Amino acid sequence: MLKKRIIFVLFYQNGSFHLSRNFGLQKVGDTQWLLEKFQFLKIGDYIDELIILDVSRDRINEPVSSQLEEDVKNLMAKIFVPLTLGGGIRTLDHVSRCFQAGADKVSLNWALGNSPDLISEISKRYGSQSVVASMDVRYVSGKYDVFCDYGQTRIGSLLDVSKQSEDLGAGELFITSIDRDGTGFGLDLNIFKELEDVRVPIIASGGAGKPLHFFEALSLKSISGVATGNLFNFMGSGFFELRSELGKKLPYLRKL
Question: What distance lies between CA 44 and its chain's CA centroid?
Fold first, then answer.
């Protein structure tokens, strides 16, 4: 069985990090704030991966600005976990820029509906393990649909987009509930009932606010990782306590 993972997500916009709730953003601070007030460098021992998503609305056709590149360098200086970068990726040149900035994987959302062949191109050049299909999901009229453009544009049904992404060579699915995003009320586990036949690892996101939420999701066979972007729920010793508690219950979680 694949190792279970605790994943932290940072939402980046114009040099600052933000909280996200139902895809609405609230600015909390820059890299210096994250390092000093949040004591970011201490969490490296307690998470398995880091995802940084550039959610800038006014980005000018580049996924990695010079400011983001510098911020990534400072954040990753003493943290040795896999890094995924996403946001604004349209071309193989964009992908190359992400890897040059230190990413191990790239997260694609826009491409799922607008340029799905990019998944195959990345997979062939860098390997399927390097490409993550990022699906923003909303419950609409009794079914789950996938959206892009910050949750505004429907791509297709969750099952269809998942199967297509897997067939094209995505090595992982990163599925976020727009309805639960940032609420801390728990993940919508019904989403993953539709994906029991998916063969690639799945990261669940949207609503994780306490250890029980992680345990509920990671106990499911189809989910290999749970991601949270809720900074304030896990300040201080939050990630240490989360990992300690889960380590007692989940045999496939990396031990401290």
Answer: 16
Global pTM reads 0.95
Taking the CA atoms of residue 102, residue 108, residue 109 and residue 111 in that order, the dihedral angle to the nearest 10 degrees is 130
Nearest 10 degrees: Cα torsion 74, 226, 152, 200 = 100
Angstrom distance (rounded) from CA 75 to CA 86: 16
Residue 59: pLDDT above 70? no
How confident is the model over 191-221, as pLDDT tens digits?
A: 999 898 999 999 999 999 999 999 999 999 9
Average pLDDT of the segment spanning 53-63: 77
CA distances from 123 to 54, 106, 129, 135, 201 (A): 22, 11, 8, 18, 15
Contact call for residues 87 and 63 (beta carbons, < 8 A): yes
Please classify residue 15 by burial: count the beta carbons closer than 10 Å to its beta carbon, then call 0-12 exposed, 13-18 middle and 19+ buried: middle
Active site residues: 136
What the block records as the tokens of 6 is 């605790």
Residue found under tokens 């964009």: 94
What confidence tier does 60 reach under pLDDT thresholds 50, 70, 90?
Answer: low
pLDDT at 120: 97
Strands 16-21 and 225-228: unpaired
Per-residue pLDDT averaged across 227-234, rounded? 82
Q: For the chain, which domains are there?
A: 5-247 (3.20.20.70)
pLDDT, position 77: 87
d(CA 79, CA 42): 8
Longest Cα pair distance anywhere in the chain, in angstroms? 46
Residue type, 65: S
